[in-house]
Amino acid sequence: MQMQAERDEAAAWFRTLRDRIVAAFEGLEDAGPGPAAPGRFELRETRRGADGGGGIMSVMRGGRVFEKVGVNWSAVHGELAPAAQTAMAARGVPGVAEDPRFWASGISLVAHMQNPHAPAVHMNTRMFWTPSAWWFGGGADLNPCLEYQGDTSHFHAALRGACDAHGADYYDRFKAWADEYFFIPHRGRARGVGGIFYDDLNTGDWRADFAFTRAVGEAFLPAFLPLAQARMASPWGEAEREAQLIHRGLYAEYNLVYDRGTKFGLATGHDPEAVLMSLPPVAKWP
């Protein structure tokens, strides 16, 4: 089950999505408030070992709208570490215990905003392949430190639209999965207001599953950009900044302790700066 053409198609689409989001975010910076120059992404190629593939790390810091945002793309391959093999075998991935070879490609995005009224956000979509199996995964979730119900409703409505076009039960299933996945057990609370999360998606129809994964990626900008545009010039002070920094501490705790992508990236030898791109630039703990 080589699926070379399918893997190439998926990797190319993830990269195209990265390019479009980067352009949209830089356009938002151009329209953002403040006398400072609009932010721009800094690009760096990443490598996974000598022959394990790599990607593009794109990070913007200190912009008008974004305090830190990363939009990374990668296509990597090699052999799974024993711990990753064990974890995937426990999830029911066939053949992975006997053959550690893998290939994976995807886009990963995390945005931490300048204005505390504008919500932080995460999105990723990916394809994973082993000699015995393939699957898609991803999702998006909104992480405001100051919640606005209208923003939450808008974000979820956009994701519901993407889901409903591909599976009548997808939104309810993947929203529930996100509520469970993005929960911080040691704090007894969610890290944000949710979204959708899915993994190990293989209905047996690669084309249909890829179409759904593209729909999730396509839904991101309509789900998020209006929220950032509406909140980026809202007045704020020390109390709002304090709430933002403390909420970022929650985000950092989750990503370092529980996030599946962080664990996989570090365990498989990917560039640690790219893997840890999701961490906020400044955080605070009470």
From TrEMBL:
InterPro entries according to UniProt: Coprogen_oxidase_aer, Coprogen_oxidase_aer_sf
EC primary class: oxidoreductase
Recorded GO CC terms: cytoplasm
Pfam family, one: Coprogen_oxidas
Gene Ontology biological process: protoporphyrinogen IX biosynthetic process
Entry's EC annotation: 1.3.3.3
GO function term, MF aspect, one: coproporphyrinogen oxidase activity
Superkingdom of origin: Bacteria
Keywords, alphabetical: Heme biosynthesis, Oxidoreductase, Porphyrin biosynthesis
Pathway listed: Porphyrin-containing compound metabolism; protoporphyrin-IX biosynthesis; protoporphyrinogen-IX from coproporphyrinogen-III (O2 route): step 1/1
Entry keyword Transmembrane: no
NCBIfam families: PRK05330.1
Family recorded in the similarity comment: Belongs to the aerobic coproporphyrinogen-III oxidase family.
Subunit structure: Homodimer.
Protein name according to UniProt: coproporphyrinogen oxidase
Source organism (scientific name): Paracoccus yeei
